[in-house]
Amino acid sequence: MAVDQAGSMRGSLYRVTHVAMTAFCRPEYLTQTLDSWSNVRGDWDLHLAIDPHQTQHLNESQAVRHGHGYTINSRRHGVLSNVWHNLDRAFQDHEFVVVAEDDVLVAEDIIEMFDWANHEYAADPEILLVNGAQLWWGLPEGDDQNHVVRRVKRFSATSWATWRDRWEGTLREGWDHDYSKNGWDWWVGKELIREGPWWTIAPSRSRSQHIGVRGAHMRPHMYHESQAKTFVSDPDPGRWEED
Questions:
Q1: What is this structure's pTM?
Q2: What is the CATH number of domain 3-242?
Q3: Average confidence score pLDDT of the chain
């Protein structure tokens, strides 16, 4: 991908888990989001793909302040294609990539969960991706549910992770860049997962929380539907297992 500007405070070190985040024209959300990422435990790095906008310098300064790599796109890709370009960049160097948004807070152990799931499900032919959010069933009782995941036919685009072979074999070529499939998230969730052959992994307690009241696909009256009622921000370390 051609770029106008690029910068990094972390150099070219590739860590256990790579996070590919997209940012648009909402620096007020990005500030909160990156603050939450600053508390995340584990061995990881983050690269921010910033669409050009009059507020891009604010997004860039946040990336620098937190020590993350960043790219300012040579043109505005928009909400559909910016994610695709950032993923395609990431999979040039990484086998497993976490997809993050600029308006989604995360739990302190989200990388611990993704890292465990990477090793647990990388060779599982049924699993397309791992969800960071859980929006589909109620709050589980007891701390023993803090580190439990389920195999589900659900998908949340707010935070997720997948592998290079799934990207190259399924997601990359079918990606929706023009809403011909009602958006890439709808295509993944409906055609590939709910009505398709793939399954996903989701935590019983959500490891991410959407905070974007406004956005390309979000209006205030829809906001409550994107809230994870089971979100836990600072759980103690624990042993992950599938229910």
A1: 0.87
A2: 3.90.550.10
A3: 87
